[in-house]
Amino acid sequence: MTPGVVPALLLACALASAALTALAIGYAQRRRLLDLPGRRRSHAQATPRGGGIGIVLTLLAVVLLWWPQRHEAWSIACALALVGAAGWIDDHRGLAVRWRLLLHFVAVALWLVPLALALARSACVLPLALGCSQLRLLLAAATLAVGVAMVWSINLHNFMDGIDGILAMQAAFVCAVAAAAFAHAGDAPHALGAAAALAAILGFLPFNFPRARVFMGDVGSGVLGLWVALLVVMLAMRPGVAATSGLIAASGFVVDATCTLLSRMLRGRRWYSAHREHLYQWLVRTGLSHARVVALYLAWNLLIVVPALLWINRPQAHAAGSGMLLAVYAAGTGVWLAGKRWCLRQVARRGGHAAA
What we know:
Layout: H1 5-31, E1 34-35, E2 47-48, H2 53-66, H3 70-93, H4 97-123, H5 132-159, H6 166-184, H7 188-204, H8 217-237, H9 245-249, H10 251-266, H11 279-285, H12 290-312, H13 321-349
Antiparallel strand pairs: 1-2
């Protein structure tokens, strides 16, 4: 693809996503697909949902038309479509958790299992210390662990989509990091795919930030959660990129969602029920605007994540990636704990409730 075509392609992705989002707003209003204000909500007026379908359809077009490996393109597209379909149904009439999780696992398997089988075939012809059967068992265990992590990514991004602009900002950041990392490693096709996804998210963003005219809905949040997980795994496998780059890029959301889940489980709460106990929700409850909370998460990305990524992706410094990953997640956990304590004090002073 000639260099002059790339800006036109990215502009087309942004415009297509914006046009589809505008159509989705009209559709949601006609069908009365509205998120209403409530105790467990962070918005004050009825707002259409499902606008993320614009991102989903644009992303599917990008994968099917421009993804470098055709067989992988179809598996990715099918996985994205399946997660998107589950979210679309949930946005319209609700979908039981067990069926939603089943569809998520099937979607992840559509991409992950063929990849694991290809790795097993390649590894068994190499002179390794482990036997072929042992290697296959190890790969099976790793595939299961990665699959569970990818399903968690789908759901945690859904949980984190609770205030204006926060998910779009985070997904755009991860796509920008992936595009830069792929380009740095000389992988122009995958860099273009990540940049096109970034453009699609930016096309949606004006409708969702600083004041939301539409919410992304499960259809958009789930697909972006899967897309982020795909980028994290691809970056981990890309020569020339520190293997932990994707996990560090995604740390802001992963820390908040995981610490919140563990906290609720340790306190004996129904961790699977709806709540507003994520740090970003507590920050809003202290009186901070949605825009200021999004700015805080962006500050984490720019002040902590970007320097960490630049450090571990220096020449001959990739081995430092694991240590930096632990340092970033430890720092994130400390920030989460300190932030939660600060929020509880502020809410108590305002006479609010400390439970959600």
